[in-house]
């Protein structure tokens, strides 16, 4: 697998739902689940790119906000640097820092927006792994870090961005780059971290680009049904007949499930690897497919249209269930012999660090109340239930979620009004086909807190590498981002020269 594809899968791990209807904990997590191969014309190999990278470890403090003896415990935090295009400290060349999110960082990270523009701006590119993921785990291993309430207690966003501050200060000191301006980048959860970092550490980061960062999806600021409303709109705008078929399919599945041997019939029709124990598992699986198609719709292949064309194209050949299965086949380019909808019992299929880590983060502070409460939705109603969510978190972890903490610590319902008065140099980029844009900043707040949106854009699309076949609107979006960032850097250098 090429460096670019590997890293894009890491980059766009963000913000994909786990199965929706299984439990009250199944609200958004940030993971790229699907198997489709992303369109790539780049031919760079891992070995070609990796030779430009150097891996380092910073002995990070366990707790930045306490002075107990155990707070001074350290753990190795991994960061990776590409020095190839840096103009070095003597020219005060900039530093681009990409914030890792809720997954292990690959050995050869490659975020296109940074790497494509580093040569133009003579930038150093830094990738920093999020604490508790990959090789940046306290207590020796991920399993030990997540073992109990005490070890998990240091796992939160405030500690994470404090980590990033320490690492960046260390890098500047080590490289004697005191006057090299830092621009921070992130996508999805990482995008939230980037924007919050600029707010909390403006003396370290000159500016931030937050791609597909739904910072308004907390504490009831964004509507709970917004995510599913955008998915619904995406399908309806693509094909109203496809939208109607999917809407009808839920009742058809429920009706067949109630028939004698109904679950066996559904298992056969959808080629499940094991007999379905409930029709909900099938519906959850399909919901996961549809929201993934909407969230990560590929502008080159237009996956959403491919799926809907398959559903519509089968209308005269088969029934509703057959149409839905044709859509599944169109989505799944690998054409699996069967589809795993009941969960695997194989030891090798244990939950990923992303799954385990994000479940904890949701139950502590990253509580985004997202549900389905619209009658015209593509999906059956499934409103978010805060009481059930809290009960499930207490049962799993013995903690009560803090639904108001993110807005208390980083900013709340008057965020736009407040940011206008004290914040600056943040770009919020969103593709409006991305369901998470419903919780994003879609209108510019000031001359330096700028919202860039694209009508046909999907999740984190602007962070991918440049491609010769990129649509004009995507190329334009990236050019605007780079122009704004260059303006920040130029003004910083001018101010530095005056001093």
UniProtKB/TrEMBL annotation:
Keywords for this protein: Glycoprotein, Hydrolase, Protease, Signal
Keyword DNA-binding assigned: no
GO molecular function terms noted in the UniProt entry: dipeptidyl-peptidase activity; serine-type exopeptidase activity
InterPro entries: AB_hydrolase_fold (IPR029058), Peptidase_S28 (IPR008758), Ser_carbopepase_S28_SKS (IPR042269)
Coiled coil: none
Domain of life of the organism encoding this protein: Eukaryota
SUPFAM superfamilies xref list: alpha/beta-Hydrolases
Signal peptide: 1-24
GO annotation terms (biological process): proteolysis
Pfam families: Peptidase_S28
Protein family (similarity comment): Belongs to the peptidase S28 family.
Stated name of the protein: Lysosomal Pro-X carboxypeptidase
Lineage: Eukaryota, Viridiplantae, Streptophyta, Embryophyta, Tracheophyta
